[in-house]
Structures are given as structure tokens and as C-alpha cells.
Prior knowledge:
Elements: E1 2-7, H1 22-26, E2 37-40, E3 44-46, H2 52-58, E4 68-70, E5 97-99, E6 105-110, E7 116-121, E8 127-130, E9 149-152, H3 158-166, E10 175-178, H4 189-197, E11 208-210, E12 223-228, H5 234-240, E13 249-252, H6 261-273, E14 279-282, H7 286-291, E15 297-300, H8 302-312, H9 318-342, E16 347-352, H10 363-380, E17 385-390, E18 393-398
Parallel strand pairs: 3-4, 8-9, 9-10, 12-16, 12-17, 13-14, 13-15, 15-16
Antiparallel strand pairs: 1-2, 1-11, 2-3, 5-6, 6-7, 7-8, 17-18
Helix pairs in contact: 8-10, 9-10
Amino acid sequence: MELTLLGTGAPAGLPRSDCPCAACAAALGPDARAATALLLDGALLLDLTPGAAFAAARAGRSLTGVAQVLLSHPHNGPAVEVPAGLPQPGRVPDGRELTLLTGHRVRAVAMDAPGTGYAVTGPEGQRLLYLPPGGAPAGLAEPAESYDMVLADVVGRPDALAKLRAVGAIGPTTDVLAVHLDHDVPPGPELVRRLAAAGARAVPDGVTLVVGAYEDVPDVPRRTLVLGGARSGKSVEAERRLEAFPDVLYVATGGSRNGDTEWSSRVAAHRERRPGSWQTVETCDLVPLLKEEGPPLLVDCLSLWLTDAMDSVGAWDDAVWAERGEKALRERVRELTEAMRVTRRTVVAVSNEVGSGIVPSTASGRRYRDELGRLNAGFAAECEHVLLVVAGQAVVLRG
């Protein structure tokens, strides 16, 4: 089954004609995208957009053989003119299946937002799933056979991938393509980086792909350390890296701090932006979690883990530190980094970068700063990906 992407952008396209934002200003050349429309084997058109015939011609294709046009989502604005010779576009009711004379079978997949997803099986058995913008499948049953290709709103609805992965509809060899791309993420390297973290990729408009053929599917990094200063956006970046995966275990090392209303507000804000399917555990006992098999871990954060570890070894007392505390802390850090080295789980950990600011005025403050620097360096050595977040922008240090 051959797929030509006539467009890969949001319904308003990219750049938006009336938007002066930085992402739209940078969306030039191959980063400019028309509204998403898919042409399958020259016979099936999924979503009819303005200029579809010209887009097909630019891609070396023709719409003259299209036998069916299906819409996946409501189209705002003026009605799109149907090119001469094309059948009138329509929608398939949720759960119903349509069989074309060409041998393609199209099943309508119910969404949790306005729109319809389409699962297409080609004449030779290749399987493709196309989801509308802003939508995720509703009521998925498990287990499911994995698709050869999935096209979805990866940036806007990463949880759609999590739902599909949870039932096996996305497997290790599934080619996940991001479509309906808008100005939420700057085009270019930043978009590539964000999509790769979700195991997805983007291609320019006009590309033709063979569904089921081997593609260089991005490898999702198994161990990632996200560093940053206060309010740098490091926690948001860490959470974003696991939004497309199911059953994430969020490990909060800060505790509840009963009676501290400001801390409670911080915790509540974190919980509200996390997917509802994630579970949370409050603990600093990270080594057993790293040694166990299980779903991905998000550890937020190592700096609070270090505070707890230094409390437990008496690091704030100079005499205790000199006698046994320093040695005990080194052992705790060694156990943690060794557990990270051998873990089989996907792990994203967050830590503060505090060594670039004012030198603390107390010996205990300088001790904490130095030990956190050592912990970050040791932990980073065991990670495939290391990021530094500055002013909400992630700088890749490794990976």
C-alpha cells in the first residue's frame, strides 16, 4: 500500500496566514505544511483540503483514480470545492466498515473528540491508522494487532499514542508519523527532538511512503536526565517525554510536607498537568524501583533525593560528615548510579543545576552544591540522553 502525504499540517496550515509567531515565521521551505490529506494507492483520499489536486500534481500523483473521499474531522470556514471528477466526500459511521472495489477495507474508529479515525487495510494486508486532529481513540479493546503505520496528532494528543501502545496497536516496528502539525512547536531540530522522544517522526509534504516497508523508526531513549534551574521548565520537559507512553509511574521524592500550603500548591499543579493514567508514589527509595521490571519511571527529582540522603547520613554536622557521613553518602550515590546502569525500565529523571549561581555562604550549602554536582555527573554518565533546560528551551548535552 502506497501512501502520499499531500499535506501534513494543521487544518489552518503552517505557517498560518494571519499569525506572526516565531514558529510560523520559521516555517519556510520544507517546514511549510498544507492541511493534512492522505492519498492511498491513488484510490482513497482521506481528508479533502484546498489545493489537493495541485498538491497531488506536485507530488507526481493524480486524483483521477480516486474512488472514495472520506473526511476525518469537521471543516471550519467556507466549504472546500470538490475538484471535477472526484466523488463527494463523506464520513463512515463509527464502527462501520467500508470495502472498496480496489480491495481496501476502511473501518471507522470512534474518537474522544469530534471526528473519525480510519483504520485502513490494503489489498495485501498492510494496516494503517489515521487519526483526526485533536483526537484519540475511544473504547479501545485489548489486545490489538499492531499497525504498520500510524498517523496522528502527536504534538497535540500524545496520549493517543499512549492508548494505542497500551493495547499493542503500536509495536516496536510501527512507523509513527506526526501529522496535523501546527505552530505549537518550532519547526526544525526542536520538532525532530520532541517527536523522537515519543518514537515518532515527521516528513515533508509530498512524500510518498510504502506502508509496511522498513523505516528508520526513532529509538526512544531508555534513560534520560533532565537538568535545569528553578522554574526553567525541566519538569515540563521530563513529563512531555513520557506523555506518549502508558502506565507511567511518577516518583515524587519531595514528600507531602504536611502543613506547607505553598508546597501543596506546587504538588497540585504538577498533578493537574500529568495524564490521568499515570500513577504516583512518594518515596526516596529509588534503587528497588530501578531494579524491578515495570512501566516507565519519571523521577522528580534527584536534588530532593540527595537532600533526604544527606539528612539520613548526618551530612549537615561537620564532625559526623568527616567521621562517616561522607563515606556513607558516596555509597548511597554509588548504589543509585549502579542501579541506573543495569535497569531495564525506561527512566526519565529530573535534577537541579545549582552550580552556576552564587556561591552559598554556609559550609552546609556549599557541601550540598558540591554533592549535587557529583550526583548529576555520575547519574548523567549512565544515561543515553542528557538535557539542560534553560528558559524553557532544552539543550541536548548527550544523545
